[in-house]
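Cross-check.
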Amino acid sequence: MLIFLVRHAESTWNDNKKIQGQKDPPLSEYGKREAKLVAKRFKELTFGEVYSSPLKRALDTARAIVGKKADIRIDEGLLEIGLGKWEGRTLAQIRKQYGEKFDRWAVRPDRIPIPGGEDFRAFVRRVKKTMRGIERGSPDGNVLVVSHGGVISAYVTVVLNVKAADIWCVTVKNASVTIVEVTDGFRRLVTFNDISHLMNLKEIADKDVTYVD
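Predicted model, tokenized:
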């Protein structure tokens, strides 16, 4: 099977450089254009199963991609990591209140607790369990998973068999495509963080920046 992992397109908070976590801002106008380009890239593909995070920015991206061609299974396990008191704030605001705690967390998330947020190890366990369920439930064909940067990065650390604490070394961009092949329980990374389908967007040079979800 091939799992096509898509990070949601740009949200209004991505555009304003606000930390999202499990908050639920909608897609920006630019993000809607990104989602349409992902759909164009996939127009010749058929997905046996389609899964999405319940948050609007992911679900609306999934709807833009598949339209009425497939049902979308909403899975709470695909939610972004809960970032607690950091959600809704910019990095400048977080650093002002919490010092450099966010920067330290971005290096060693397993050692720095998020104020009021989700435990990092519990988050990684959640992603592993969710993705294993998707792998087992769809042994053949193409599967689309639309989720968040943290979720996709966590799964990629599993695929590459690297430490989960190194998660932010494999960050992914909005509306990017990552493809994982799964055969008899063996995972192989085929494509990672591909945004070639977005290259015709004239604003890409300014927008092409990854922020933690």
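The CA atoms of residues 135 and 192 lie 18 Å apart. The chain has a mean pLDDT of 93. Passed to J.P. for a second look.
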